[in-house]
Design a protein that fits this description.
91% helix, single chain, mainly alpha
Length: 112
Amino acid sequence: MRIVEEEQEEEEERGVGGVEGGREEEERGGGGGGRRRKKNKKRIRKEKDEDEEKKDEKEEKKEREKEEMRQKKKKKKRSTIKKWNANKELQKKKRMKLEKNGKDKEEQKELQ
């Protein structure tokens, strides 16, 4: 028992055991596979970023399409209203012309 405790104390003093020892091993690149783990983490982070970018692009595209549809609807509505107004004006002119013609005919009858 005593020998094991002494070995642990020596390891702690040298910084081999415990949390500190693990840090030192990582800094040195020891422990086998540290570099691979880092590369995998980098790759995974990169893939996540790419996925997020794709997702953002899709959302932006949807928003643009929605906005385009809104603009088209507004434009169509405006043109329809313009047509209605133009038609109303045309009807007014026709009515005025008919009334004028009707009055002219009545005046001609009165003159005869």
